[in-house]
Every structure is written in structure tokens, then in C-alpha cells.
Amino acid sequence: MAKKNENSMDEIVSLAKRRGFVFPGSEIYGGLANTWDYGPVGVELKNNIKQAWWKFFVKDRDDVVGLDAAILMNSKVWEASGHTAGFNDALVDCKKCRARLRADHLIEDNLDVKVEGKSLKEVTEIIKTNNLKCPSCGKSDFTEARQFNLMFKTYQGVTEEGNNIIYLRPETAQAMFVNFKNVLNSTHKKIPFGVAQIGKSFRNEITPGNFIFRTVEFEQMELEYFIKEEDWQKQFDYWQGEMIKWLEYIGVKKENYSIREHDKEELSHYSKKTIDIEYDFPFGTKELYGLAYRGNFDLTQHQKHSKQNMEYFDTEDNQKYIPHIIEPTFGVDRSVLAVMIDAYTEEEVSTANGKTETRVVMKFNKNIAPVKVAILPLSKKENLSKKAREVFDLVKTEFTSQYDESQSIGKRYRRQDEIGTPYCVTVDFESLDDDAVTVRDRDTMEQKRVKISELDKWLKEVF
Ligand code: ATP
Fold first, then answer.
1. Among 305, 324, 292, which Cα is nearest to 227's?
2. Which residue, of 45, 76, 125, 316, is most buried by count of CB atoms within 10 Å of its CB?
3. Which residue owns the Cα nearest ligand 1 atom 22?
4. What pLDDT is recorded for position 4?
5. Residue 185 pLDDT > 90, yes or no?
6. Are 114 and 274 in contact (CB under 8 A)?
7. What ligand 1 atom has the least distance to the C-alpha of 335?
8. Which atom of ligand 1 is nearest to the CA of 215?
9. 215 lines ligand 1 (CB under 6 A)
10. 203 lines ligand 1 (CB under 6 A)
11. Nearest CA to ligand 1 atom 16
């Protein structure tokens, strides 16, 4: 298992809080396990990733359309999809310290064995024969493995009766299948075409989540691409390529991710091929995204359970069939985490008095940087503030900007480096005479004088 410097995770979590990327959920009440809140800078980063994804996978193509479906769906959806019966994790309890653990995590963190597809009996046996130890107390005395459904249950209406039970969706995908005919009839798309959605999903994850890697409430960006069966391999390879291009687009470094194909045991019964794109997180190499060939399982199931026809009439060869599906799926929060880890950089720089100090800089790709431009008047003097405000008003609509006149210029640069702002624009006393500003580049720290009248054009060229 590849491991990066494990301390880097602590540094990122602490920077995330200090600079307003991510805060612990419900913190003043002692928190709530596996929940996190995105702060003022984090929400910009997250929005940029979601908007970039929407542009990349929906807007820039004419074969993919969007959807924004309700989080709460009829419970029959989850019966048809198999989630009510089968969306389970195997759990074990430590008999000594009562820690509750996911059996697959206990095994996979200690042994080179994949658990997906194994029976409860096999899982219990692996834990026993390998004498695996509880990560909390070090003892090896566990209960037998048992199933635990990951869906959050709630009730609709005033009574908490069985037939009022509804679930918070554990994935966004089902809404795209359920709306297949609605989309088809309203858009007249021809196969192959896709439906994409970005939205919240909920899973009752019981193990510690490693920051925003595993949370109980998270966002997914999913694409269901409807195809003819015989095209599945071609389409699979194509979407794998698109996923790699996306990683490049948001600046995830090649050397930090890899592709792992699921073996037979791990594959869902309806899938002929599934891959995980794995990222080398500081806590281990783990799934970042997935790509699955789902056959025509989903639409067939919904046709069976809803008794509505899910067939597509192909006018090219006069045939009716239930389309097959290729599904690229992306976690928003895991994307945020991967780009933060890749962006995090510590550099030795020399200071004005000849010493060296460590500069922390988040080297985000410019297209997803949460703040694009910072406007910094050299002092709080009224005439400088006025000029700087004018510059701020000039750029803020086109580029997400921050106006900051607190503390020394050095401290303000450091703060902007830590949130990864590509350009700092300083308004100084000379600006009052020459109507120009100093623009500092985040990565090279080089400074350039730019006329205020040309700033907007200059910024458009560099972004
Ligand atoms: P894992 O094995 O890590 O639990 P999974 O295989 O169950 O993930 P999928 O059902 O394939 O995940 O979900 C699609 C994507 O949603 C994942 O690739 C991941 O990016 C994201 N995701 C899944 N579960 C979580 C979670 N609990 N918190 C944050 N993101 C998640």
C-alpha cells in the first residue's frame, strides 16, 4: 500500500480549518462523526470543481443532458435497485473495547485481500485465522461478521409506520434510470447519449472517515451513458479516457493516481467490467472515482418493478431494446481532497533580512483556484483604499476576488498563498500617480507592473 507522508494529512486538515476550507461539522457541540462543513474558501473550491465538471461532461458536449432530481424517492426504487436488500457492509464488534468496525476495512488495512463478494462466514474466518487486532485496543476478540444496511431511514407524513419509511438516497444514479423515459421523450436524444447529475448522497458510514474522504453526507457527480450492448467495450475505453482528461484538467498529478480493475469476485453480478481510479492518499491508496459497465441491469429492474416499459426504439435498425449503461462516477469531496493534497507545497524562501523561511502555498490549477485575484492596498490610508476598491470593483465580477487591507503585506501574501490565489494585486502610493498596480505571481513570486486600464485584459489572458 503506497503511503505518502502521513503528517501531510494533519497539515492539510489544520490548514483547511485555519484558512476556511473545511471545518468539523457541529464543532461547538463536540462535532458529529463523519460530517464536515465547507467554509468560505472551501465552498468556492468545491463550486469550481462542480462547475468545471458540468462544463466538461455536459455543456461542452451535445450527447449528455443534465438532471437535478429529488433526494427522497419512492422506496420501491431502492427495492428495484437492490439497495434495500443488498446495500450492506459487514460489521464486527470488538468484544473487549466495543469498537464497531467495518470488516472489509479491518481486513484490507492489514492483509492484501479484497473482501467484496465474500460471504459473512468467509469474512469471519479471515479475521480469525489471521488473528487480526482491534485498532482501538489491540486485542483480537471479535463478534462474527453481520450485515448492516448503509441507507439512512426516515418517515414521510405524521406517523412513523413501516409503510411510511423512505430513505435518503445513497447514490444519485437511480434518479437517472427512473427518468430515462422522461429524458428521452422530452429531448428526443438518440442512443448513445448520457444523463448527468450532481447532488448529495447519504450513507450511514460507521468507521472513521479520514477527513472528507468518507463522510455520511457527500456529493456525487455521476453520468449514466446509455448505449447499444455491442458498443460497451468501445464506450468503456472512451469514458476511461475522458476521466483521465478530467483529472488532468483539475490538476491531479499523474504519478498520484492509478487504475485498478475489479477482479471476478469483486464485480457486481451484472457487471462485465469495473475499474476504480485510485489515488495515493496519505492514509493509503484508495478509490477516488469509479467506472462501471452495468449491462442493462438497472433499466430491466425498473421495468420489472414499475411495470413501465423502459425499451428504446432504435430507428436506425428498427429494433427495440433495453439500453446498456456505462457509468463514470466521481465524488466531489474526494476530488476536493485530492486536489488539496496535490496542491499542498512547502517551499524554502529567503526573506528581506537574508534569512530563510518556509512558505506554504496551495498550487491549485488556476481554473479551480477558489480565489483568483486578491486586491491588497499597501496601507489603509484613505486615498489608497479608494483606489484599491476601484480596482476590486473592476475585476470582481469576472474573477472571484478578495479585498484585504488587514495586517502587513507580507502576512497578506502568506494568507493568499495558503488559499492558493494565483495573483495578488498590490495598490501602492505610486499607483496614485501612474495608474498602475503590482501583480505578484503565486508560483514564481515574480512581480510585474500592469496599468489599471489593462488589468482586466491582462487577467483574461493569464486565466
Ligand atoms: P468506498 O469503497 O470507498 O466506500 P464505493 O465503491 O462504495 O466507495 P461508489 O458507490 O462507487 O463508492 O460511489 C461513487 C463515488 O462516490 C466514489 O468513487 C467516491 O468518490 C464517492 N463516495 C462514495 N462513498 C463516499 C463517502 N462515504 N464519502 C465521500 N465520498 C464517497
1. 324
2. 45
3. 331
4. 54
5. yes
6. no
7. 20
8. 28
9. yes
10. yes
11. 331
Sheet with 257-261, side-by-side order of all strands = 64-67, 193-202, 217-227, 324-331, 284-295, 273-281, 257-261
One domain for residues 206 and 302: yes
The tens digit of pLDDT for each residue in 19-37 reads: 999 999 999 999 999 999 9
Minimal-distance CA residue to ligand 1 atom 4: 214
Residue whose CA is at the smallest distance from ligand 1 atom 8: 287
Helical ranges in 55-98 per DSSP H = 75-81, 83-86
Ligand 1 centroid to residue 219 C-alpha, Å = 10
State the Cα–Cα distance between residues 90 and 117, nearest whole angstrom.
11
Do residues 207 and 265 both lie within one domain? Answer: yes
CATH number at residue 283: 3.30.930.10
Q: Is 170 in the pocket of ligand 1 (CB under 6 A)?
A: no
Domain count for the chain: 3
- The 10s digit of each residue's pLDDT in 263-312 is 988 888 889 899 999 999 999 999 999 999 999 999 999 999 999 999 99
Asked, as a colleague might, if the bond just before 192 is cis with ω within 30 of 0, I would say: yes
Residue 142 and residue 272 in one domain: no
Q: Is residue 410 part of a domain?
A: yes
Residues 12 and 144 grouped into a single domain: no
Domain that holds residue 266: 2-73+172-340
In this prediction, residue 1 has a pLDDT band, given cuts at 50, 70 and 90, of very low
Region label for 324, one of left (φ > 0), alpha (ψ between -120 and 50) or beta (otherwise): beta
How far apart (Å, rounded) are the C-alpha atoms in residues 31 and 42? Answer: 19
Q: Output the pLDDT for position 354.
A: 84
CA of 114 to the centre of ligand 1 (A): 16
For the chain, how long is the longest CA-to-CA vector? Answer: 80
